[in-house]
Amino acid sequence: MAEVSPDGECNKMLTLLPLSRIRTIMKQCPDTKAIAQEGLFLIARATELFIELMTRESYDVMEEQQKENMADRINEILYKDLATVVEKYECLTFLSDIVPQKITVREYYRILQEEEEAENGTEANGTDS
Fold this sequence. Notes:
The chain is mostly helical. It is 59% helix and 0% strand.
């Protein structure tokens, strides 16, 4: 961890993310009046841990897909790996609108058509009762 010199100065950064940027983002909220240094540090550290979790899980998904497909894919995390992680874990469902699974336009139109048919079917069933 960080070494503290006798005068209280830290010789090593405790966070990787720039605290000034995080403070700027936090100040964008109109309800925020003052930001304590401890709170700022905790937000930065929590964000780093979240990024680490997403990266590790996405890497695991990438490795699983490599084994399944026997592909010689370069070890890099792709968007689809992140989307799979978001879909896989219930605790990450808040990201489902931000990182959705990619679909083709054809699939999108098919889904829309199915929804319209289901909606028309329920309307017809509702009026017949």
